[in-house]
From TrEMBL:
PANTHER family: XANTHINE-URACIL / VITAMIN C PERMEASE FAMILY MEMBER. It comes from Trifolium subterraneum (Subterranean clover). This is Nucleobase-ascorbate transporter 12. It is found in: Membrane. The chain crosses the membrane at residues 7-26, 32-53, 65-84, 145-163, 232-250, 256-275, 287-305, 342-362.
Length: 412
């Protein structure tokens, strides 16, 4: 683990990998915002004004505009959308939003149906259809189905996700003025993410569990790194998950407003990824070339795979986040082994995979000093392990620690 952490995974590898995750959604963000520009653009501008121009304004000793920029922006934009909807700004003569698009005959209504769906706030029936209380249980959506091709893809994606987590762990340790996490702590965190993903699969959530890099920004803004605060937040989220109306309320947020928020969040994710370069010599020509090539190839190579075999005049319209999963049918790998074609075409269509492969190969083959690569910062856990105060920051709670004392990967 020490060798893997110090030589293969370091700031020069982590930075473009995380940044590529945010950049990969560039084709989804503003194109959706542009479908209702007067709401989506307001959403983005309000969040930017709060988080940047009003960030130093304090109310009762708290910088609420910086800390609550996203929820405040959402509330204000939702109120604007509600007023426009109620004022009839998106009512068109003879058009009904409840009629499926396939049943609309009038060309006039066909021209406005997309705008009505994106701009109005009353198109979702999630609040009405969701129950007040719903208790989730394992296998509620049926027995999980295993496909080895997708399993291989997810193994690679999980590896990239672990790289993201390693960067988040180190960044968090600096924000709370602690020593860098030891190899045992890193293994414990990644192992817990794997266990959580297994539970997510049993509950049928459709997504795995990983460390959310944006939460590192939350720690930096709120200056709150207490375990008790995290535990309380987790408890509240678990309780809210049992209230169906809460989920219905979140699901009823107009898509254009979600896209506006995600434009900000993905931009933050990209910036947080690049901020890991502060651990290395960011001005080094070696690092500049590696980062530049990794980021450019992370956008260009997937674009080549996703566009391969598609006619320029094709009217195929698929959201960007679905592109890697349809590319298997027309990607450049077309051998007689269908499963291998699916795996290779899908893997090379994922932006973060390309960024990771380019960065890890170049960084570990191009000569560079430890200071230049940032390895010396992340190799300090050997010293930290001998520090008795490290147990206070990373040690498991006493009762939990006694139970899992026999498991080596939970150690320091």
């Amino acid at each position: 683990m020490d060798f893997f952490q110090c030589w293969f995974i370091n700031p020069v590898v982590v930075s473009p990998t995380i940044a590529a995750v945010g950049l990969s959604f560039y084709g989804y963000g503003f194109p959706i915002v542009g479908s209702c520009i007067e709401i989506g653009a307001v959403q983005i501008l309000v969040v930017i004004v709060f988080s940047l121009y009003l960030r130093k304004i304090s109310v009762l000793g708290h910088r609420i505009f910086l800390i609550y920029a996203v929820p405040l922006g959402l509330a204000i934009t939702w109120a604007v959308a509600f007023l426009l909807t109620e004022a009839g700004a998106y009512n068109y003569k003879g058009c009904d939003i409840n009629i499926p698009a396939s049943n609309i005959v009038s060309e006039h209504c066909r021209r406005h149906i997309s705008r009505m769906k994106q701009c109005r706030i009353d198109t979702s029936h999630a609040m009405k259809s969701s129950p007040w209380f719903k208790f989730p249980y394992p296998l509620q959506w049926g027995t999980p189905v295993f496909h080895w091709k997708m399993a291989l893809v997810m193994c690679v994606v999980s590896l990239i996700s672990s790289v993201d987590s390693v960067g988040s762990y180190h960044a968090s340790s600096l924000l709370v003025a602690s020593r860098p996490p030891t190899p045992g702590v890193l293994s414990r965190g990644i192992g817990l993410e794997g266990l959580s993903s297994v539970l997510a699969g049993l509950w049928g959530t459709g997504t795995g569990s990983t460390t959310l890099t944006e939460n590192v920004h939350t720690i930096a803004v709120t200056k709150m790194g207490s375990r008790r605060a995290v535990q309380l937040g987790a408890f509240i989220l678990i309780v809210l998950s049992l209230v169906g109306k809460v989920g219905g309320f979140i699901a009823s947020i107009p898509v254009v407003m979600v896209a506006g928020l995600l434009c900000f969040m993905w931009a933050m994710l990209t910036a947080l990824g690049l901020s890991n370069l502060r651990y290395s010599e960011a001005g080094s020509s070696r690092n500049i070339i590696i980062i530049g090539l990794s980021l450019f190839f992370s956008l260009s190579i997937p674009a080549y795979f996703q566009q391969y075999g598609i006619s320029p005049n094709s009217n195929l319209s698929v959201p960007s986040y679905f592109q890697p999963y349809i590319v298997a049918s027309h990607g450049p790998f077309q051998s007689k082994y269908g499963g291998l074609n699916y795996f290779l075409n899908t893997i090379f269509s994922l932006h973060m995979v390309i960024a990771f492969l380019a960065a890890v190969i170049l960084d570990n083959t191009v000569p560079g000093s430890k200071q230049e690569r940032g390895v010396y910062v992340w190799s300090e856990p050997d010293v930290a392990r001998r520090d008795p105060t490290i147990a206070k920051d990373y040690g498991l709670p006493s009762r939990v620690g006694r139970i899992f004392r026999w498991v080596k990967w939970v150690g320091l």
